[in-house]
Automatic annotation (TrEMBL):
<dbReference type="GO" id="GO:0008270">
    <property type="term" value="F:zinc ion binding"/>
</dbReference>
<dbReference type="Pfam" id="PF01753">
    <property type="entry name" value="zf-MYND"/>
</dbReference>
<keyword id="KW-0413">Isomerase</keyword>
<keyword id="KW-0697">Rotamase</keyword>
<feature type="domain" description="JmjC">
    <location>
        <begin position="106"/>
        <end position="274"/>
    </location>
</feature>
<feature type="domain" description="PPIase FKBP-type">
    <location>
        <begin position="384"/>
        <end position="469"/>
    </location>
</feature>
<dbReference type="InterPro" id="IPR050910">
    <property type="entry name" value="JMJD6_ArgDemeth/LysHydrox"/>
</dbReference>
<keyword id="KW-0863">Zinc-finger</keyword>
<keyword id="KW-0479">Metal-binding</keyword>
<dbReference type="GO" id="GO:0003755">
    <property type="term" value="F:peptidyl-prolyl cis-trans isomerase activity"/>
</dbReference>
<keyword id="KW-0862">Zinc</keyword>
<dbReference type="Pfam" id="PF13621">
    <property type="entry name" value="Cupin_8"/>
</dbReference>
<dbReference type="InterPro" id="IPR041667">
    <property type="entry name" value="Cupin_8"/>
</dbReference>
<dbReference type="InterPro" id="IPR001179">
    <property type="entry name" value="PPIase_FKBP_dom"/>
</dbReference>
<feature type="domain" description="MYND-type">
    <location>
        <begin position="292"/>
        <end position="330"/>
    </location>
</feature>
<dbReference type="Pfam" id="PF00254">
    <property type="entry name" value="FKBP_C"/>
</dbReference>
<dbReference type="InterPro" id="IPR046357">
    <property type="entry name" value="PPIase_dom_sf"/>
</dbReference>
Length: 469
């Protein structure tokens, strides 16, 4: 595969290459600023890390997970596909053999063998040019900070920053890999969506030159680029946005680590992640129809007789929920039920999960819209429009899961928002305010969003269209 051309970017730099690097200089750059990406050409001396073929010959029965895209992005439509195969089956696929995998550039982007096969730890050593405060710890969770990545030509690691405020190094063992990086201070210039502000992912694809209308500040960012060859080790400092594309069958050894420049941020990130997992999940985070949305009881529950999306264990919970939020959402959700009934079923036999599956005979309804305030004029957006909106997003039980907290600009066809919301926007006029119900199949379907949207969940959006251009 040919490398991505970066000539469209007015600000571009090749990643600096060096040997005999002073580790104190690297550390000082990280402490004093953002650091810089660096390719070290003499960091793998004495290593014996195997290629995909040799590792598959030795550990072929190991089960591995492969994806057609990576890392996961919750707005993917269609969603990312995942398969579990044997390592030898993936090696056969990479060699153009076998019939287990086909039809995509399947990426084995996170094999963690070093706790299971400790002898593999002897095939590499910690690079001399970085301080690694996690070095030598046999805790299995920390051993899994080191991974092997295998890909075929065309496999892509999408634009992201690494989790937990860690630095990373990537040692290229086999094949060529193109890398593209942006500094942390350029992160906002790469942002298309309001909700990308604090996220570790970006929708921008460097392989597709970004539209300056959709990304008005993107070409003010400096793009760093390089092609890694076997023997090269790339340093990615904490917070740097990075993207990678395999140009050949590729093997990469990667490690996330902390040093004295980021140890406080790393500890805080780990602590925050643990606290979030314990305490910050939505209060009513249950699949529709499986529990009372108020007290979470799972016995003797009955669905709302009108919308049949939320369920209750008794009248007290139903009354409380009606007064606090459901009164506003029930009518628009009930209209989704009405559409489903016209397709083939009756309200008496439709379960919440049935309701939001795609109809068997009719095209799936992707939204129901109730107009709260009419707009002005006859102009509506089209597929090529940019729009400015205020919005709030809710689960069907009334929990707020997202908000623009101010004007939010997006491109109607290029912005990967929920399909139903996007299609509803095409029906709105400037000044219009509407409540939009989106069935699960036109939102996040059965995959949901971890810690935020349960699987098979319809969503409700309150949207005000402010501008079209």
């Amino acid at each position: 595969m040919d490398p991505i051309e970066v000539i469209a970017w007015p600000r571009s730099k090749e990643v600096r290459r060096a040997s005999r690097v002073d580790p104190q200089e690297v550390l000082q750059r990280m402490k004093e600023g953002e650091g810089e990406p660096l390719i070290v050409m003499d960091a793998q001396e004495g290593w014996s890390v195997g290629t995909l073929a040799s590792l598959a010959a030795a550990y072929g029965d190991a089960q591995v997970t492969v994806n057609d895209r990576a890392p996961l992005q919750e707005w993917d439509d269609p969603p990312m596909r995942t398969r579990v195969v044997r390592l030898r089956e993936y090696a056969a696929y990479a060699n153009g053999e076998g019939d287990v995998l086909s039809g995509s550039a399947w990426y084995l982007n996170s094999w963690e063998p070093f706790a299971t096969y400790p002898e593999l730890r002897e095939t590499w050593s910690y690079p001399y040019f970085v301080e690694d405060l996690l070095q030598g710890d046999d805790n299995p969770k920390l051993l899994n900070y080191t991974k092997l990545l295998f890909g075929v030509s065309g496999c892509t690691t999408r634009l992201h920053v690494d989790d937990q405020q860690t630095h990373a190094w990537l040692a290229q063992i086999e094949g060529r890999k193109q890398v593209i990086l942006f500094a942390p201070s350029d992160g906002d210039r790469l942002r298309l969506h309001a909700w990308e502000h604090d996220a570790s992912r970006r929708a921008l694809d460097p392989a597709d030159p970004p539209d300056p209308i959709a990304y008005p500040r993107v070409y003010d960012a400096t793009i760093f680029h390089a092609i890694l060859a076997p023997g090269d080790t790339l340093l990615v400092p904490c917070g740097w946005w990075h993207y990678a594309r395999c140009l050949d069958v590729s093997t990469t050894l990667m490690r996330n680590f902390a040093n004295s420049a980021n140890t406080d941020r790393f500890k805080l990130a780990v602590r925050s992640a643990n606290d979030h997992a314990k305490f910050n999940s939505p209060k009513y985070l249950v699949e529709p129809g499986t529990a009372c949305v108020v007290c979470r009881a799972t016995t003797d529950i009955k669905p709302c007789s009108r919308c049949r999306v939320v369920s209750y264990c008794g009248r007290d919970c139903q009354r409380n929920h009606w007064l606090t939020s459901h009164k506003a959402f029930c009518p628009v959700l009930a209209d989704l039920l009405s559409f489903k009934n016209r397709s083939s079923r009756t309200a008496a036999t439709t379960t919440p999960t049935d309701l939001f599956a795609a109809p068997a005979r009719d095209p799936p309804k992707t939204f129901i819209k109730h107009v709260i305030r009419d707009g002005k004029g006859g102009l509506k957006p089209n597929e090529d429009s940019m729009v400015r909106v205020h919005y709030e997003g809710f689960l069907a039980d009334g929990q707020k899961i997202d908000s623009s907290r101010g004007p939010f600009d997006f491109h109607v066809s290029r912005t990967p928002v929920a399909k139903g919301w996007r299609e509803a926007t095409l029906t709105m006029r400037v000044g219009e305010k509407a409540r939009i119900a989106v069935p699960a199949h036109a939102a996040y379907a059965d995959r949901g969003v971890k810690g935020k949207v349960p699987p098979n969940s319809p969503l409700v959006f309150d949207v005000e269209l402010l501008r079209i251009w």
